Amino acid sequence: MNKKDAGELSGVKEIARRAGVSAATVDRVIHKRKGVSNKTRDRINAIIAELNYQPNLHAQRLASRKVVHIATLVPESSDETSFWVGPLKGIEEAELEVMQYSVKVHKYFYNQNNKKSFVKQAKAILKARPDGVLLAPSFMEESVHFVEDCEAQGIPYVLMDSDIPGRSNLSYIGPDLYQSGLLAAHLSSYLLQEGDKVLIVNISKEIDNDHHLLRKEEGFRAYYKEHGREGIIIKRDIHQLDHASIEAGISRELQRNRSIRVIFVTNSRVSAVAAYVQRLPQKVILIGYDFLKENIDYLHDRTIDFLICQKPQQQAYKGVMALYQHIAFSAPLEKVHYMPIDIITKENFSSYEK
Amino acid sequence: MNKKDAGELSGVKEIARRAGVSAATVDRVIHKRKGVSNKTRDRINAIIAELNYQPNLHAQRLASRKVVHIATLVPESSDETSFWVGPLKGIEEAELEVMQYSVKVHKYFYNQNNKKSFVKQAKAILKARPDGVLLAPSFMEESVHFVEDCEAQGIPYVLMDSDIPGRSNLSYIGPDLYQSGLLAAHLSSYLLQEGDKVLIVNISKEIDNDHHLLRKEEGFRAYYKEHGREGIIIKRDIHQLDHASIEAGISRELQRNRSIRVIFVTNSRVSAVAAYVQRLPQKVILIGYDFLKENIDYLHDRTIDFLICQKPQQQAYKGVMALYQHIAFSAPLEKVHYMPIDIITKENFSSYEK
DNA sequence: AAAATTTACGGGCACGTGCCCGTAAATTTG
DNA sequence: CAAATTTACGGGCACGTGCCCGTAAATTTT
Fold this sequence. Notes:
The structure is a homodimer. By secondary structure, the first copy, chain A, is an alpha/beta fold. Chain A has three domains: 11-54, Orthogonal Bundle (434 Repressor (Amino-terminal Domain)), CATH 1.10.260.40; 68-175 and 312-339, Response regulator (Rossmann fold); 177-309, Rossmann fold. In chain A, 45% of the residues lie in helices and 19% in strands. Chain A has a six-stranded parallel beta sheet with strand order 3-2-4-5-6-12, sandwiched between helices. The radius of gyration of chain A is 26 Å and the shape is elongated. At the A-B interface, strand 1, helix 4, strand 2 and helix 8 of A face strand 1, helix 4, strand 2 and helix 8 of B. Chain A binds a DNA duplex through residues 9-13, 21-25, 27-28, 30-31, 33-37, 40, 55-56, 58-65.
């Protein structure tokens, strides 16, 4: 680690020297503040372009006396699913990393089965006027509303886990749900023998509003349609989340159709299905979603064969970081950032990075 | 973005105030320099612990007048495989990110088929005395030697892509090769019907020295051994890299054994196998390694069914960054950091993050 | 043409840390 | 016990940027 060759100055001072002005004037040009004659401004801008000046982020952040406020709005983790523990960890990881640099993260939570709680929290955020918002939308109509309010107030926001269909021009970090369904279909296609059937299972209180499930199912069906084998798909919607209802739904389908060999559960509730499937005499292949304790347990004893996962923790982490970079350093917000689609099996789950 | 509530000081100055000394003295304690009485040192250390003081990295980096030199030693990308383009990109990505902060990355390359070139480059690095080294080892004996020299000179180093078997206590970022073979076996097990066989293909000039291939094969075999089905495995080593030799090797096995249904190629040369398999009348399932243009093309037309991949670009990026963090901020070097094992198919390759 | 205002710019401090240099006080040496 | 040396500490500048404040010069108003 050698000493730096000192001597020539760099950054704003170097620009100032070349332009024959003071650093303060260069600063005014960079920040587009007034108080500089057009002539000087042009001269300085030319030099900035010529040197391809990039500000030193360390110095910038150090000198800035601003506190950045970021608000996050995600579901609280419930008994029904521990999925949201992951994103929360991601948020906290990011928080820990940036908090010593004058950034505050304000965490808001809503109940996934309760629209009102979402609206209430959204209102609270708007009142607090943060510098940026990370949102995991669940209730489509209300989410659209909230996002519009943010735009009206000029608050940048990032969506995660699920986008809002039909709306472009916003920043999204999360899975490509359609591709994810396609992939599940591709995987399952290898496992089917002549005459076998596939059962798609949607488990949600509001399936019709659940963009997540619907989009995955679309992708899944699209694959078999492309291959002219739509006929082998059977589908079952289950609107109650308790184990008894789920078991009843699945067992009915299995009795009705003996040749079901693969079950594709479109979300993380796959463990509830596994609890039933485990007790069956015949082997049924189970494909589901998300790296959760309860799912991994069934993966471990091979009741669940594949889990598809999209790094929920990293999603949230990246969401917060992207916002921070955008606000603090005016870095551009990527329009869409699809997370990789990971396939987890008994063999590789131990090295899976959340 | 509000103004920060000014008033109370923070960092070193706050510690100094509480201890009733100057900031310079605190600084001496932090950096373990002499010139402080034991009494004062203890008092200051207590306060540091109490406040859980973490230095401001922005200020630290800004104030430091050191230039950090990092050397990287990886294979040059050849006609035979474009694999090393990925890691190189990762290195350059990291370089771009840190170069404005007084970090210089010096890139050295060797020819994978030429031990001497490796030794020569290694020597050149030692002579340049960098602050850290990122190494992708190929020739085991020579790599061990190089690593020992680094240790002797006190230069921290990180291995990537392949570790050195039997040596612990070094930093490694890359795949868990054994697990990777296990996973391939698990995948393949779903695709086999009664009576089918699996063909393992190793393609390398120095198979016996190639830790990569051997370790993957071990994992693969272990899976079938565990399930009492070792008998279905057939193996073929191919020592020449040209297409004709590869084709000859594969076709011989296929003729000898008509029930081969799955071919597992233990490295990125799978595309050469695909070129042959594509022309066969029957469908053979192909599993191979690495996200390369030539492999993706065959994935796209479904000649290759699965590619296993371990984010080569990210490996290199993380390697450089880990070194930088370690040297510049004396962050700890993780002993082992296994990259996730990703399964790439036609459906998900477009969202794969290298 | 003098006064009031606006424009255009420079000086200088602050952010938190690293580190050189100067100097009283403590200790060792003659 | 004075002189030489060592120890223990404080002062202060630098890193590159942000931004407040002061002030000549240019422009407008009376």
